[in-house]
Specification:
By secondary structure, the protein is mostly helical. It has one domain. Helices cover 47% and strands 8% of the residues. It contains six helices and three strands, in the order αβαααββαα. It has a three-stranded mixed sheet with strand order 1-3-2. A hairpin with a 2-residue loop joins strand 2 and strand 3. Helix 3 runs parallel beside helix 5. The chain binds adenosine-5'-diphosphate (ADP) and magnesium ion. Magnesium ion (MG) binds next to helix 1.
Amino acid sequence: MARIIVLGAIKGGVGKSVSTYNLAYSLKKLGKNVLVVDFDRSANITRCVVGDIKTVAVSIGDLMMNQMDEEEQPNPAECIISRNGVDFIPSSKVLSAVDTKLRLEMGAEKIWHVFWSR
Ligand SMILES: Nc1ncnc2c1ncn2[C@@H]1O[C@H](COP(=O)(O)OP(=O)(O)O)[C@@H](O)[C@H]1O
Ligand SMILES: [Mg+2]
């Protein structure tokens, strides 16, 4: 069964990105399949993986936007980047737009629920 581990904190510079990256590869070393989803607008993990975030084709922000607009989601192969055995869904600036849209939507908490229960 899949487990979701969230590393989050409002404060910056406390080690979220570094811990996530190290945890991902440590779990991989223990034989687990790992998917890292970068939900941080600063996209530091994404930069570690792809270099220039402008090269990201489909980010977690795009997937969330699609979900809210009830549009079809892309194939997983189009949004998952594999690096040395660990899979990543990158972040991008689109997350800022998602944030704004979520705040404006009625029943935004429902959207989160639908997104995560897929
Ligand atoms: N365990 C640690 N020991 C030493 N330095 C660390 C440790 N964890 C993080 N850092 C350093 O602290 C800084 C902030 O870490 P980062 O993971 O980017 O924080 P956040 O994602 O919470 O903003 C980075 O320069 C990182 O290399
Ligand atoms: Mg970070």
